[in-house]
Amino acid sequence: MKIYFNKTYFLLFLILLFVETAIVCFFSKGFIRFTFGDFLVVMLVYCFVKSFLNVKPIIAAFGVLIFAFAVEFSQLFNLIGIINLQNNLIAKLILGSTFQIGDLIAYTLGVITITIIENKVSYSKPST
Q1: Which of the two ends of the chain, N or C, has the fewest CB atoms closer than 10 A to its terminal CB?
Q2: Which residue segment(s) compose the domain that 88 sits in?
């Protein structure tokens, strides 16, 4: 694993960060806020990881999925309450507060989507 800076992934990260911020600001409930936001957040984290680490896409995708599942399961065990951050807005945004199986499905679909996109992009690149 090599540390470097990839401008393309970082630009994608910034775009996804903007979209996620817009979702939080303009959608207080519903499918877009909760399900589509979770679908996109794994892509955001994936692009952030790939901005700085030169790892195979499948390894990055699997790592992001494990991380997302860990965060979701921390909600099941009320980690945010255990570490006494239940009144901290930023902690609640990052860690969440309610375990939902639907979130696990959204994370999984997001990682599958990013893996499919990566495979299509890598197959369309000309060989050298």
Answers
A1: C
A2: 2-121
**Which percentage of the chain shows pLDDT scores above 70?**
96
Which of these, 37, 53, 41, 54, lies nearest to 13 by C-alpha position?
41
Q: For residue 45, count CB atoms less than 10 angstroms from its CB and return exposed for 0-12, middle for 13-18, buried for 19 or more.
A: buried
Report yes or no on 128 lying in a domain: no
Q: How far apart are CA 43 and CA 76, in angstroms?
A: 23
Contact 49, 64 (CB under 8 A): yes
Residue 126 included in any domain: no
How far is it, in rounded angstroms, from Cα 4 to Cα 27? 35
pTM: 0.88
Q: Which amino acid is at 2?
A: K
CA atoms within 13 A on the CB side of 37: 19
